[in-house]
Structures are given as structure tokens and as C-alpha cells.
Amino acid sequence: MSSGGSESPIRDASGRLDRLSKLIIEQLQEDGRRSYAAIARAVGLSEAATRQRVQRLLDEGIVQIAAVTDAAAVGFHRMAMLGIKVEGELQAVAEKITGVAEAEYVVVCAGQFDCLVELICEDDEHLLRVVDHVRAIPGVRSTETFVYLKVAKESYQWGTR
Predict the structure, then answer these.
(1) CA torsion angle for 48, 53, 57, 60 (degrees, to 10)?
(2) Dihedral sign of CA atoms 42, 48, 52, 54 in order
């Protein structure tokens, strides 16, 4: 296994991900279970070099390989985006919200809201309890809930452009 040395470089001279690393990421985005041998054939590397590069990408936190579920199929029938306006320390509020189990996506942003949070809940009652919990966090001035009626597109295959 690589100890972080130069056996499996993943970056170019300027420190950016190199072309081969990006190609490997695109292969994994298409199918996270794809074999090292198949990825190696697709990108033109040996299987060993591919395995080392993937391990470096994982070790550096550049990629994660995870199962993506259909929320409704596993019992979560209510999804919503919560727009939050904050007074006081924005980062402290965002950190508190990251501790909410139902918060799958938390971003600090510019615009009408200071923070956007994607919530995945079992049903409307569960969503209401979570929204009430978030509203009680010190620094949360107001919230607006955008209930998802249908997810028209959800993709993790945006490549590395």
C-alpha cells in the first residue's frame, strides 16, 4: 500500500488533479463498483497503478465510494430544502445544523438565505419536528421550507470538467 510517496502521483506539477486522476474519478462516478482492471483498461494504466491512485484519492478525501439510495424506497418519503436566515455567528449556526441527523446537505451561501439545508424525513410530521428543532437553534432568525414534490434529476456523474 502507498505511504503517500511518489508511487502513485495524482496531481500535476501545479498541484491540481492530473488528467489520469480525473479519468479515474469519472469511471468511479459512472460505477463505484467498477473493478480496478476495468478502470485501468479505460484510462490506460496498469491495475496496480490504478489501485494506488484510487487509494490516494480516497486517503486525501477527494473521492468517497458510497451506496446512493432512493430515499422513498428506504422509508424516507418527505424531502425538503430549508432556507435559513441567521443573525449573529453564521458558522456556529451552520455547525449546529450539521449535527442534525436529517440534514443531508448543509451549505453556507450568499443571497436571500444565509444557509441552505436539504432535509430527508420519514413523513410530514417528522419534517415538522426537524424544522421546529432547527428554528430553536440560537442564531436562527427565520426559515422557509421548500417541500420537494418530485425530484426531477439527481446525479453524481458530473465528471471532473
Answers:
(1) 100
(2) positive
Give pTM, 2 decimals. 0.77
List beta partners, residue 17. Answer: 11
Secondary structure (DSSP) of the chain: ---SSTTS--B-TTSSBPHHHHHHHHHHHH-TT--HHHHHHHHT--HHHHHHHHHHHHHTTS----PPP-TGGGT--EEEEEEEEE-S-HHHHHHHHHT-TTEEEEEE-SSS-SEEEEEEESSHHHHHHHHHHHHTSTTEEEEEEEE-S------S-----
**Residue 18, all three cell numbers:** 492530473
The CB density around residue 34, as the number of other CB atoms within 10 Å, is: 15
CA torsion sign for 68, 71, 72, 75 is positive
Grid cell in block for residue 57? 484519492
pLDDT digits (tens, 9 = 90+) for 9-56: 898 889 899 999 999 999 999 899 999 999 999 999 999 999 999 999
